[in-house]
Amino acid sequence: MTNAPHILVIGAASVDVKGRAYKDLHTGSSVPGDITLSFGGVARNVAENLARLGQPTVLISAVGRDPFGAQILEYTARTGVNVENIIVSPDHHSAAYLAVSDAQGSPAVAIDEMDIIDAVTPAHLYRNRALFKGAAMLVMDANLSAGALASAIRSAQRYQVPVAVDPTSPTLAGKLREHLAGLAMTMPNVAEAEVLCGHAISGREGAMAAAQELVALGVETAIVTLGEEGLCYATARESGYVPAIRCEVVDFTGAGDALTAAVVYGLVNGFSTGEAMRLGVSAATLTLRCADTVCPTLSLERLYDQLVI
Is the pLDDT of residue 291 over 90? Predict the structure, then answer.
């Protein structure tokens, strides 16, 4: 894949601190469990997954001039991602994400501190506009400021580069509503899709209708993820449902980012839409089984080993 066009990824890079309880959680008191530290951020996770699949990938993000920032850069570069255009800011400390899961591995509470992403300004993106030219796709997360999102989309459109945006959270998803008509892909979960569509969504039928509604609003490929139930997807020509692969969950963190990366990989490399979706579900499953935010043994071969037929 070394001669393939690069994918440009823009958004958050962080340190992930994750705790999983061994017993039932109780407000106001601690319980035994395990605590792990890894590297995350939606955009960084997507970039690492793409690189592990063999896709040339360039990441634009921001880290602090601190030990965590240096570790994020070193580790991410070691996975194969081009990190030369990541801002190292002396004015902010590196982004962090803190998550606590219950004994079953389900997320209980999470806090993120992503203020440093505001260092990725429209001016910085303009200075790096050459990275847009020739890119196979632009992938972003909604942690970016509204101005940076708009600037990146304009640059991508100027060079006819398809744009995929992860809504990231219900709180941030509203930023995408004015850009839906220009997106090649978006991949909300149900709560995020409710923000994008402006109404409640219930069950698989509701998720399918929401994906089709997003296509009617101008999105080329819309995916609505349903957690342990799988995903629904739609384009102007087809729609479908892909069930989740049953597995023992070690950690939910990063599963959606792996799905995004694998679907993007499939689409830019000429896979059918349906097969790209199945690759995405396979990648999410590998990540669910892994304690790390990104599965370090991810590969195209491993995705095919458990592909949903």
Answer: no
CA angle 183, 270, 160 (to 5 degrees): 40
The model's pLDDT over 173-205, given as tens digits with 9 standing for 90+, comes to 999 999 999 899 999 999 999 999 999 999 999
- Residue burial 172-182, b: 16+ Cβ < 10 Å; e: rest: bbebbeebbeb
Note the Cα 224 to chain centre separation in Å: 13
- Cα distances (angstroms) measured from residue 220 to each of 163, 211, 214, 259, 265: 10, 10, 8, 17, 16
CA 287/CA 178 separation, integer angstroms: 32
The count of other CB atoms within 10 Å of the CB of residue 47 is 33
Q: Is the pTM of this model over 0.85?
A: yes
Contact of 295 with 306, CB cutoff 8 Å: no
End-to-end CA distance of the chain: 25
Q: Residue 58 pairs with which residues in a beta bridge?
A: 8, 82
Whether the Cβ atoms of residue 240 and residue 228 lie closer than 8 Å to each other? no
